[in-house]
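Could you help me review a protein record that somebody else here produced? Here is the record exactly as it was handed to me:
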Amino acid sequence: MRPDPSGQVAGYLASNRNFVIADVYTFKTIYGELLQFSGYTIPFTVPAGFFDQHSINAGTNVTFALGPKFGRSKINTKIGAHVDTMDLEMYVGATDQIGVLTWQTAFLMGVFDLATVELGRLICAPITGSAISIIGYVVWFQGLVGDVEFGRTVISIKVNSTLTLLSTQYPRRLWQATCSHMFGDAMCQFDRQSMAATVTGQSGSGQTAIFTGYNPSPSNLYNDGTIIGLSGANTGFKRTISALADGVAYLTAPYVYPVQVGDYFSMLPGCDRSLNMCQNVFNNLGHYGGQPYIPPQEFSI
């Protein structure tokens, strides 16, 4: 049995033969959206006390709303570092949407790239009418979105166990001219908030491009940076800025909720990991993580 934070599941099953098991699904995007859906015929509201610390729903009351229909493969549990895979299918129509995007559009535009998927199982007493008595919640599987195939009505997803992260190549730091640090991390030590800019969505703004009217110096200061919603439907949600040109911030993935004129956003700078930008723009040469004077590769005859 997987962890039972409520401590009630084992006791209930020991003395009751009648119960209901309902699958529920949680998607957490790398941009901050948390999307929860019921795979049963009714929605569920689950108090925070039912989630253990390993659940991505930990610490919050969650309503699993009715969404598309779900189908999945069986889950295997093995001892060791085996990377298990769950095949997940979602049967979606034009009326099934994430915000104002269809599921197909959201996947196509990268909203779910590397998103975390949690399959949870709700153990309930027999459901009569609208009376729902939840006994416990068990994290049945947790993984990252892998290969995706979708058509007009079906989306098929390979969800790889989080153990797949163990396949990350090491060492992370390589001998190279460009910086190997993550911009703003403990190795870089640059405070990105020190160069944050607050902007307002102007006329023409949409979910893939925010018209800000802001032109920074240097012009590439916010390329590969981060934009965070401060007001409106996208409050708290992040996106990566692919480029800021002529006052327009172009996003690598669209916001799933509408962007209105007057919505506020905070933009954090990006870094191209070059010695020039580290020294002349961020004045952070002391923490540069590259080796700019390594001789370049040369061909010999």
